[in-house]
């Protein structure tokens, strides 16, 4: 495996994994008050475009990372748009 591929895989892993704590917190507390919907919409659109780019060029690290990130970002958007159905739980 080339060094550049290792860098790409590590970058994909780190940037995707960085979203997990936010998604877990949103799912646990249902609190999205401090999250910008427009930022997540723009970000998710960008991630979707990166996914299309990866598919077009058959770049598996780009495809896998952006697929996972897209799912995580869509979960946050879902909770943001849905709104709280019950009061947020304390952590």
Q: How would you describe this protein?
A:
This protein is an all-alpha fold and 91 residues long. The protein has one domain: Monooxygenase, CATH 1.20.1280.290. It contains 4 helices and no strands. The chain starts with a helix and ends in a 9-residue tail after the last helix. The mean pLDDT is 90.
* Total domain units: 1
- CATH names the topology as Monooxygenase
**Main sheet, how many strands, which sense, barrel?**
none
The residue-averaged pLDDT reads 90
% residues in beta strands: under 5%
Shape: elongated
**Cα-based radius of gyration, to the nearest Å:** 15 Å
What is the tally of helical segments? 4
Number of strands: 0
The amount of helix comes to over 70%
Please mark out the parts with pLDDT under 50 across 5 or more consecutive residues, or reply none: none
State the CATH class. Answer: Mainly Alpha
Specify the CATH architecture. Answer: Up-down Bundle
Instruction: Spell the H/E element sequence.
Output: HHHH
Structural class: mainly alpha
Instruction: State the separation between the terminal residues, measured CA to CA.
Output: 43 Å
